Amino acid sequence: RIHQSAIKIRHLEPWKIAVIVIGTAVAAAITIGLLVYFLSYDQKLFYYSANVKITNIRYNNEFSRQSSGRFRDLSERVERLIDKTFYNSILRKKYIRSRLIRVSPEADGVTAEALLTFWFSSTDSREALRERVGKILRRGLKRYTGPLRINVRSSTISSKYITFHLKVVISIF
């Protein structure tokens, strides 16, 4: 005869198991929801203006129209350079895009002004981020080996554009 243990094994009723499982799932869902809210929705769009000095292109009146072929060609080259620079950097997950907005004449070439867009936490320091963005952009411009001749020392970045809360952007859509 098999000896039964003196300790009784206590079994939970099925409804108690269901309550525990559902309670745990609800707690996990609330935790994940709060994390997503605070990590995603506490983001701001940060805009920076980058001025890239290009010395081997002469200004042409076509550059004054964003719809012209020359403007679009230069826009594609500059935007690709900036995109590549930030996609290969520590800011790749924060970088959204760049857009060439203006080409201005200079004595020894042109200055291409691009608008750079990033997602950063609303608690981040605007000036510290501007410095980081500037360092990464200068490093990318120094490493650039394409057809454009860029004067890195004359190229600048500023944070003159305003920021928008993500909530405002979402409310527009």
Question: Can you summarize this structure?
Answer:
The protein contains four helices and five strands; from the N terminus they run αβαββαββα.
The CATH architecture category of the largest domain equals 2-Layer Sandwich
- Under the CATH scheme, which class of the largest domain? Alpha Beta
Structural class: alpha+beta
Residue share in helix: 40-55%
Determine the CATH superfamily of the largest domain.
SEA domain
Total beta-strand segments: 5
Which spans have pLDDT < 50 for at least 5 consecutive residues? 162-173
Q: What is the fold-level CATH name, i.e. the topology of the largest domain?
A: Alpha-Beta Plaits
**How many strands, what sense, and barrel or not for the largest sheet?**
5 strands, antiparallel
The CA-CA distance between the termini, in Å, is 75 Å
| Average of the residue pLDDT scores | 84
Described by the principal axes of the CA atoms, the overall outline is elongated
Please report which band the strand proportion falls in: under 5%, 5-15%, 15-25%, 25-35%, 35-45% or over 45%: 25-35%
- Rg, please? 27 Å
* Number of separate domains: 2
Helix tally equals 4
SSE string, helices as H and strands as E:
HEHEEHEEH
